[in-house]
Design brief:
Blueprint: H1 21-45, H2 49-76, E1 87-88, H3 90-112, H4 118-141, E2 143-144, E3 148-151, H5 153-176, H6 180-203, E4 205-208, E5 218-219, H7 220-244, H8 248-264
Helix pairs in contact: 1-2, 1-5, 1-6, 1-7, 2-3, 2-4, 2-6, 2-7, 3-4, 4-5, 5-6
Length: 265
């Protein structure tokens, strides 16, 4: 993976082709996904059985699809190589999204059905972190171009470490945040970590001329933009569901009231 021994001059790439538009919007979506996921987790804490599992699944989609995957590919829309088209493999891109949702779900279910101790949080955080980093590099592998991509091993390791810290912090916050204010703060921190992991991974990438010659896939405009819009609509629907559903406090108060009514009857 290391490119240290390559004497060929790397091709110039641009991660911020549209200025702060892409990183700014990517960060906002990462924060929004984290916020929705944390609000789902608070509701899962007040339930058991299928209801708990349902809220954890919604949280997995919110964090994995919106907070991580959408963030990644919005940022990638700002990635260009002067004079060279970039295509994206449809199957590999879809696999990267499913991977993000899956690993977040595994981490959330480990913690959601545990006693809330640090060992499940650390185990879930490592799983999420390694999975998120894998999703990033699978997403990068979805790119098809005429040139050759290599990575700096040290920066890749740093990006994985950032992802593990972000995943662990997200699980810790999911067990402890209660109010809207603390959820917003936790989401802002999560957004910084996820975005930082992405751009650290991008800094690890080096593009060298030639060596590929097998370009196939769809352009960002014909594939990524419609897909991102579709996931954004799903995010809006999740926002409505969460906003209209009872809060953790209301769920517990309702359960307590039903318990008192049963006791008095």
């Amino acid at each position: 993976m290391s490119c240290g021994g390559n004497s060929v001059t790397p091709v110039q790439v641009h991660n911020f082709s549209y200025g702060l538009l892409n990183p700014g919007l990517a960060y906002v979506m990462s924060c929004l996904g984290g916020f929705l996921g944390l609000r789902c987790i608070t509701r899962a804490r007040a339930h058991s059985g299928f209801a708990k599992a349902g809220w954890l699944l919604v949280a997995s989609v919110a964090v994995g699809a919106t907070g991580i995957w959408v963030m990644h590919f919005i940022a990638m829309l700002g990635f260009t190589i002067p004079g060279q088209p970039i295509a994206y493999s449809v199957p590999v891109t879809m696999i990267s999204m499913l991977l993000a949702v899956l690993v977040v779900g595994i981490g959330l279910f480990i913690v959601g059905y545990s006693d809330g101790g640090m060992l499940p949080i650390l185990a879930g955080g490592v799983i999420i972190g390694i999975g998120v980093a894998t999703m990033h590099y699978v997403g990068m592998a979805a790119m098809s171009m005429d040139d050759t991509v290599k990575y700096n091993t040290g920066l890749v390791a740093v990006s994985v470490l950032i992802a593990i810290v972000a995943g662990t912090a997200a699980l810790w916050a999911g067990l402890r945040v209660r109010g809207i204010g603390s959820t917003v703060i936790a989401s802002l921190v999560m957004g910084i970590a996820v975005t930082g992991m992405h751009y650290t991974g991008m800094a690890a990438m080096r593009v060298y001329p030639g060596g590929n010659g097998n370009m196939s896939g769809e352009s960002a405009e014909s594939f990524l933009l419609p897909l991102l819009l579709g996931v954004s609509v799903l995010t809006f629907l999740m926002t409505l569901v969460i906003a209209l559903s009872p809060t953790e406090e209301e769920i517990r108060e309702d359960a307590s009231l039903r318990e008192r009514l049963r006791a008095s009857s």
